[in-house]
Amino acid sequence: MTVLCFFLVFMNVDLFLKTGHCAETRDQILSITPKTQEQVDLLKNVSTQYETSLWQPVSPQYIREEAQVHLFVPANSSETVKDLLQRHAITHEVLLANANELVEMQMRNDSTDPRSSSTFYERYHSLEDIYDWINRTTHDNPNTVKAILVGSSYEKRPLYALKLSLNDRPNKKAMWIDCGIHAREWISPAFCLWFVHYSLSFYKQNADITHILDNMDVYVLPVMNPDGYKYTWTTNRMWRKNRSLSKRSACIGVDLNRNFDANWCTEGASHDPCTEIYCGAFPESEPESQAVADFLRSHKDSVQLYLTIHSYSQMLLFPYSCRLDEAENHSDLLEMTQEAAQQIKRYYRNIYKHGAGAKTIYLAPGGSDDWAYILGIKYAFTFELQDLGRYGFLLPPSRISRACNEALLAVKVIAQRVLEKTQAQTHPPHTD
Fold first, then answer.
1. What is the pLDDT, as a whole number, of residue 424?
2. Is this model's pTM higher than 0.85 or not?
3. Res 17: pLDDT
4. Is the separation of the CB atoms in 211 and 416 below 8 Å?
5. What does DSSP assign to residue 52?
6. Which domains are delineated in the chain?
7. What does the H/E/C string look like for 281-309?
8. Cα(127)–Cα(226) distance, integer angstroms
9. CA-based R_g, the chain, Å
10. What is the pLDDT of residue 248?
């Protein structure tokens, strides 16, 4: 047997017990907790020198003693990686023994027409399906939804933001939501579609969303990184960055969430094009980040709330991520995320961490929420959706509904608090 039986930890143990044979090696997700600095160094080496994909943390530089590491290990690297872990007495847990099946499940799609299936929003959709959905949504709601071309990607794919405007009130403020800045985080675009569908379906039915949409227009960019997203459907499910070519390296792609002008490329980002947190050649070097920045610059007087949707780790974050200082309105932002987290726990029994990004996770300069905050949008948030790592970036379609409803609840709570704060500033209490 070429595949040795100590690999059964990666495999289906039941099959081994029944047959005495080892199952075929598959792509797997491992959870590894290094106990010593030597083990930390080995894991850093494994995540960079072998064909693996580091899920958590996002970069080898963040691997620490006693901190959980989530590592995607393709079948062709399993034997080598497993051998290294065993030789250095590094214990691990198999989170997913057969990631291939989950990827196939995510891509399975029986219907692309939302009118023909109530479960359209409980599936993941290809980029082509999402463009088609944008066209249909604007066509079916000509008086309330408009598609705005905010720019195009490196590979010249259009970046469409939907503008939801449910009434004609003058001088209305707005919120912005972008999804899919990181290609492999499929639950993120799924949420943007979910949010639009919910808003159009429950306006005048649900009091919270009606209040929000009566007082705010909403801009929704379903896929900020269309090139990377397309690539995850066709070539590499674990791709994170965009697909731009570098003049000084054969490595492809920039982390768009390190490419904004907020302490750009300081600690927590990298000048190395081969890393997952490559910051690009200069701030807004990428057409995708520049398009979003240009749009927000031209709408900064109306956009009061900025939301960017990511996964995974169940967190509600706010500035700063690019430095350790507290934001000017830190207490307001903390209060809003705290209430949202409490509501999620109350209704869905799920725990979301909340706080300033740098202190809640780690320093991450060049992020879009910090940039929006510095621009003047004083209510800026990053949501990290489900889960905590059991499925990670491969969250099954059966989990979409729950994940989106949790995020929707957080959006409602925060948007209503923003309206209260901004309306109070616009209409101060009358005193004689």
1. 74
2. yes
3. 36
4. yes
5. -
6. 5-97 (3.30.70.340), 112-425 (3.40.630.10)
7. CCCCCCHHHHHHHHHHHHCCCCEEEEEEE
8. 7
9. 22
10. 86
